[in-house]
Design a protein that fits this description.
It contains eleven helices and three strands, in the order H-H-H-H-H-H-H-H-H-H-H-E-E-E. The protein is mainly alpha-helical. It is globular and about 70 Å long.
Length: 334
């Protein structure tokens, strides 16, 4: 008679095999929406050229003095020009070439570009030009969103990292902006939010990649095991996508509230009061689908998201680390 432990292991293998077979059948029989055509001209091509044109080491820009920072930005003026040309065009990563040759070095060059933008912003801050610095940082946010458009999860993760660099720098310069400058930044942030790469798009693109890999390396058992092992990483990536969306909406909300207070002499009684004049709509919390929480605190206010744990901690800032516990505010530690 078969030992119970062996029988259990055999049953588990049979279940995994049947699951693998089922998933293969579903993948091959299900209809995937046709991929949208790559725009022409494609801003992504400008990003690639910009990344190739970067010279010098931009990774340590935060340690450079004023003259060295200026030299770095001046030397890489062509990269900045190409990057901004790409931002004026429709963007999409060429998926066909990425399916056959996923170039991770190219993603590293994309991160160098966002550091270059941040170096430009830091130089502008040194020159006492906070509005111009904010423009560099909002371009960094836009770039992170656009360079991940049409890409797989790994592209979105790099895009999130780029957006986080720009958003973190922008949050620090918010108190230095005038009402007029704040409204310009607000407009840019709302454009990014309206055209944000959605997680549904990212997952759809990832399915294209999975289907391609399965058809070219037909090993359904290994495919299912790999999918099972990467599930936590995919869930974490989705949370990171929501976190960066949250931070950017909080910065936009903070700017709108500061504009209102500057004009009216007091903070609004309700978050709805800033809508239309300063914001197109009340900032939504990606973790609840409900408006961000807003509370008056004397002559100040508290605007926050409940964060990934879904619990309202009264605005207590989330600490660094994973899993994330606590709430997100515009000035929360990153």
């Amino acid at each position: 008679m078969m030992p119970p432990r062996f029988r259990t292991s055999l049953l588990a293998l049979v279940v995994i095999f049947l699951l693998a077979l089922l998933m293969v059948l579903v993948m091959f029989r299900s209809q995937t929406p046709p991929r949208p055509p790559v725009p022409s001209p494609n801003g992504y091509d400008d990003f690639v050229k910009a990344g190739e044109a970067v010279t010098d080491n931009v990774d340590d820009f935060a340690q450079l003095d004023h003259d060295s920072l200026r030299a770095l930005v001046t030397t890489n003026a062509e990269s900045l020009r190409l990057l901004r040309a790409g931002l004026t065009r429709q963007c999409a990563m060429p998926m066909d070439s990425a399916l056959t040759n996923l170039d991770l070095n190219q993603l590293g060059k994309m991160k160098r570009l966002v550091r270059l933008l941040t170096a430009e912003g830091r130089l502008r801050e040194m020159d006492n030009r906070p509005a111009n610095a904010a423009h560099s940082y909002t371009d960094a946010i836009r770039f992170g969103n656009e360079m991940s458009r049409g890409g797989f999860i790994i592209h979105r993760l790099v895009g999130i990292a780029c957006e986080a660099i720009g958003c973190h720098a922008l949050a620090k310069v918010v108190p230095e902006l005038s009402r007029e400058d704040s409204r310009i930044v607000l407009s840019e942030l709302e454009k990014v939010d309206a055209g944000r790469v959605t997680w549904a798009e990212v997952r759809r693109n990832e399915k294209y990649y999975a289907r391609y890999q399965l058809r070219n390396q037909l090993n359904p058992l290994m495919w299912v095991m790999g999918w099972w092992q990467t599930r936590p990483a995919i869930q974490k990536a989705e949370t990171q996508h929501k976190i960066i969306t949250t931070h950017e909406r909080l910065v936009a909300g903070e700017l709108a509230l500061r504009c209102y207070q500057s004009e009216q002499g007091h903070p609004p009684a309700h978050l709805d009061d800033v809508v239309t004049k300063y914001l197109a709509q009340v900032p939504q919390d990606p973790f609840t689908g409900q408006p961000m929480i807003y509370r008056l605190q004397g002559t100040n206010w508290l605007l926050y998201s409940v964060g990934p744990d879904g619990a309202d901690d009264g605005g207590r800032p989330a600490a660094k680390g994973w899993p994330v516990k606590g709430d997100f505010r515009f000035d929360s530690p990153w």
